[in-house]
Design brief:
CATH superfamily of the largest domain: Type I PLP-dependent aspartate aminotransferase-like (Major domain)
CATH class of the largest domain: Alpha Beta
Helix content: 25-40%
Largest sheet: 7 strands, mixed
Order of helices and strands: HEHHEHEHEHEHEEEHHHEEHEEH
Strand order of the largest sheet: 2-8-7-6-5-3-4
Shape: globular
Strand content: 15-25%
Distance between the termini: 60 Å
Number of strands: 12
Number of domains: 2
Number of helices: 12
Length: about 350
């Protein structure tokens, strides 16, 4: 019997990135939109798919989609890179500017895929610590960047899983440091539309800054797996050299383009979720919890009288699923709840009160 081939050593020892898929009545663990896009969106996509030339490859450049996304941000298509979810955007960025002999910097706790994708692409991880309240520690940022000289620096704002939003001044300071070392700054704004400001304001033709976004959250299109990056044309041009040909299928391009016809519905949905987030936090404040301020569509919290893992288990037994972060580094005892519909949030709050009070 022949021996099995083995993956490279760095992959063989690596854990995958997974969210528990459990059959529950209230699912608040993966930061999805609790409401679907408008019915008119689904109908328009269905009509357009009927005209797809299935025997032909899709538009390799995703021209219409990139043009429409660019117009949304008052930019041209040459400054837009679209891919299968923001994770493929980040992976392509690492394949292009990272790799063996290069490093990517990130400041923990933050989005786990930043380090996971770095390792997958052979990019070494330069890890720094966040400060009190999970805010950026600019002294620590400077230490890591000057010591490690990373090719890419990742910031996630609003940060996942903490919800913390980096201030415009902090973003500018980090960008200045990145420029000094000849690196590239990527601000991951998967939850950007839920926050009050954006790194998009710092973009420039000669500025080594890119901003990644996703359709999964604010556009209520997690099933489509569509994300994009906004940045200088010279960055986008390099990414296009690396990404697989015809990587973005015709249906995804159609759905992403038609979604932009429903901008008002997206903005209304985001505004409603921000308002519901405020109500949810106000109600949680009456319980024995440590709660972190959030600029996203989720809230990080830590029970103070019962272990977080036990609270997660008891919530699951009540058919309410949240994200268990209690075993993650620096997040001892923490749980993360997605902002759902008012009815879903009430189920969560009532179950949580039963457990804690």
């Amino acid at each position: 019997m022949s021996s099995r081939p083995v993956p490279r050593e760095s992959i063989a020892l690596m854990d995958g990135y997974h969210s528990p898929q459990i059959d529950v009545e209230v699912r608040l663990n993966t930061n999805e939109s609790p409401e679907p896009p408008p019915r008119a969106f689904a109908a328009a996509v269905a009509d357009a798919i009927g005209d797809v030339a299935w025997h032909r490859y899709p538009d390799r450049a995703a021209t219409e989609l990139r043009t429409r996304i660019g117009a949304l941000h008052d930019l041209g298509p040459e400054q837009v890179f679209a891919a299968n979810g923001s994770n493929e955007v980040l992976q392509t960025l690492l394949l292009t500017y990272g790799g063996p002999g290069r490093a990517a910097a990130m400041f923990e706790p933050t989005y786990a895929l930043h380090s996971h994708l770095s390792r997958i692409t052979g990019t070494s991880v330069a890890e720094g610590e966040r400060g009190p309240g999970f805010a950026l520690d600019l002294g620590e940022v400077e230490r890591v960047l000057r010591t490690e000289q990373p090719a890419i620096t990742f910031l996630c704002s609003p940060n996942n899983p903490t919800g913390v939003v980096d201030s415009p001044d902090d973003l500018r300071t980090v960008l200045d440091l990145v420029e000094e070392i000849g690196g590239l700054l990527c601000v991951d704004e998967a939850y950007g539309q839920f926050a009050s400001h954006s790194a998009l304001d710092l973009l420039g033709d000669d500025t080594p800054l890119v901003v990644s976004r996703t359709y999964s959250k604010t556009w209520a299109m997690a099933a489509a797996r569509l994300g994009y990056l906004i940045g200088p044309a010279w960055v986008v041009s390099e990414l296009e050299k690396v990404v697989l040909p015809y990587h973005l299928d015709a249906m995804t391009q159609i759905a992403g383009t038609i979604a932009l016809d429903h901008l008002d519905a997206m903005n209304s949905r985001v505004a409603a979720l921000v308002e519901e987030r405020g109500r949810l936090v106000d109600r949680m404040a009456d319980l024995p919890l440590e709660i972190w301020p959030s600029g996203a569509n989720f809230v990080l919290f830590r029970p103070t009288t019962i272990e977080g893992r036990e609270v997660w288990q008891q919530l699951t037994e009540r058919s309410v699923l949240v994200r268990d972060c209690s075993s993650w580094p620096r997040l001892d005892g923490c749980l993360r709840v997605t902002v759902g519909t008012p009815a879903e949030d009430d189920r969560f709050l009532n179950a949580l009160r039963e457990i804690l009070v």
